[in-house]
Amino acid sequence: MKLSREQLEQFDRDGYLFFPSLFTPPEIKVLTDEVPSLYAQRRPENVREKTGDVVRTNFAAHLYSYPFAKLARHPRMVEPIKQLFGEDVYMHQFKINGKAAFDGDVWQWHQDYGTWRADDQMPEARAMNVAIFLDDVNEFNGPLMFIPGSHKLGVLDAQHDVDTTSYPLWVINHDTIAKLVERARIAAHNEEGRKGIVAPKGPGGSMILFHGCLVHASTANLSPWNRVSVYLSLCAVSNHIRRFKRPGYIAHRDFAPIQCLPDDCLLNRYDVPLPWKNGTPAEELQPALKAA
Ligand code: SIN
Ligand code: MN
Fold it and tell me: Does residue 290 form part of some domain?
């Protein structure tokens, strides 16, 4: 899948691209069928919500789940990012966010690259998320919200919030968010459909890619519908992290370029390694010495 000139211009202007229904229902079923057994596992990669046993996010399933190992090599997800960076990419982080019906908690306003720089010493914003909806996303189940154009401002001041949810995040203060939204609203004034905040919604199988500096958040899910989404955080190989402060299952230390599988990989049999199938290697649970 190649991004067109128009898509490249739109990405540069807005900081994200949305592809409704890019994956078919049979492809998505292969993935959704696997999620309950992953969430049921008692392993450190399952981070649960503050309120109970419900999984907020599952890390690194591509290293121990066959369908997700194939998704991590899917050309529809990986090739556009290689095109944007003009080089090979490796998997910096892989997560399946639950945003469970009634229990799914907020994700505060933040930039991903803010965390990657502060915690992992990633040199530049040459890494980004590509997300795929496993459930339909609507206005009620906590869609991802973006402030269009906010990626142009580089890394913004952020505070390390370890209290609001069960997962620590470098978050942007509310005054700054109000100013950014107003800035985006004014910029959008004469362009139909552009507002200060956007929230792409669509069927399961839709894909979003967004710049590492794009400011984003999502509200709690008070609806009766789950909003499971998978996020691949792909980093240009030359831009690999320099510090291993976070466990390896959250910020990966293997910088090998991703080799894509064929486009039909979710529906057909392909061999992929599952190195963490029998558990997480002890060294991946701990901080480690700095990378080279
Ligand atoms: C994220 O920002 O990493 C996740 C946000 C969400 O799943 O709503
Ligand atoms: Mn994020």
Answer: no
Question: For the chain, how big is the Rg over CA atoms in Å?
Answer: 18
In sequence order, what are the residues at sequence separation of 6 or more whose Cβ sits closer than 8 angstroms to the Cβ of residue 144?
131, 137, 199, 200, 208, 216, 217, 218, 229
Which segments within 60-98 are labelled E, that is strand? 89-97
Distance 216 CA to ligand 2 centre (A): 7
Which tens digit of pLDDT belongs to each residue from 185-244? Answer: 988 775 655 679 999 999 999 999 999 999 999 999 999 999 999 999 999 999 999 999
Query: Is residue 291 included in any domain, yes or no?
Result: no
Instruction: Decide if 19 is inside a domain.
Output: yes
Nearest residue (CA) to ligand 1, atom 7:
97
pTM of the model: 0.96
CATH of the domain at 65: 2.60.120.620
